[in-house]
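Message: Study each token:
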Amino acid sequence: MRGVFYVILSLVVLYSCKKVEEPNVNSDTADFYVKGLKNGAQFQLSAGDNNYYMFTSSDQNNEDVYYHSGRLADANCTGVCGEEFIFHFKGNKVSPAGNDVLVAGEKDFTMSEPRLLYGVTFNSNKTYTSRAVEVDYTWNFGDGNVSNDQNPYHLFEADKEYYDVSIQVKTSKKVESNLVNRIYTSSGCKTSFDLVKNGQSSRLVAKHEGGRVAQYYWEFEDGNTASVAELDYDYRSINGSERVCLTITDENGCVSQSCQNVIVNEAFAFVAANFDYEIEEVLPKNGFDQLNTVSVEYIDEKGEVFFSSDANNSQTVKIVSVEDYPTRNEHGLPVKRVHFILNGTLVSAQGNKIELTEMEGYIGVAYKEE
């Protein structure tokens, strides 16, 4: 780990640090402190009180994104020795340097594992319900999540090739229909098809958005299959509707599917579940580098480490102000004094939680000059 730097506000000399003025231990006047409610109880740590010091550091991760950290801890102890409070700020640009490395404002908590998601908008408007007064929709997204919305939006993890999504439609006329469509997690292609009638004859016509089609694959409810772009469709023996699926693979290897309950005679269909969908890539908020975000750590008296979580949308952190601090750290790097306010939940690896509310303070961080 490179570039770990400290500012130690004390008369004590650490690692050949230069002596600086010892701050007032009253948190209202201490240079660096944090105070508020921890699980509803008063909590406070102040630099200069009980051997607590404000350590600052600046380091890079594997992607060369800088972290600017402040750590309130007992400077005279090794191992497990009391509570610690740690702030990590990610700069507002990759490999940041200069006076504008940190800016005030509302911040998001750093995602521990930023990942790509696929957002899918489902539209069931092509469902035929024979003018039923009441219609109930039940969606199963194939990932353990369900919805009763008529036209839901759902986020899918990108770590699976596809999800089998089903819709069940029930009407007030006591009839129901269902449909399963395989949703491939890719936004690079799309498949659909139309039933084209011309007098007594009809054809199924494939439609595709994406690269040049390498393979068509039709599947019919009676078990028959076909591998062409268009085919004659004899519906005279079908009462109401028939389930048809078309899967297309293009020259780029992109796969997409469209399944429909093809309505051939509305008088006998009663209800036919159908849906369209649109897929979009959803990048993690603040990008994969998570620039301009904050993460928090708290270590309790027993050494259990708690981390901020990005799962709770009610969590807030605000940088009220960022100002130059007059004392540099022992490596000669300048230090920023950051005024913050936060409310959030921290979670340990053991699954234990602590609630931080009305938390406020001043934290120091080091940065590199341009």
Summary: Residues 266-269 form the longest helix (4 residues). DSSP finds one helix and 25 strands in the chain. The chain has two domains: 33-111+289-366, 117-282. Confidence is low (pLDDT under 50) at residues 1-27.
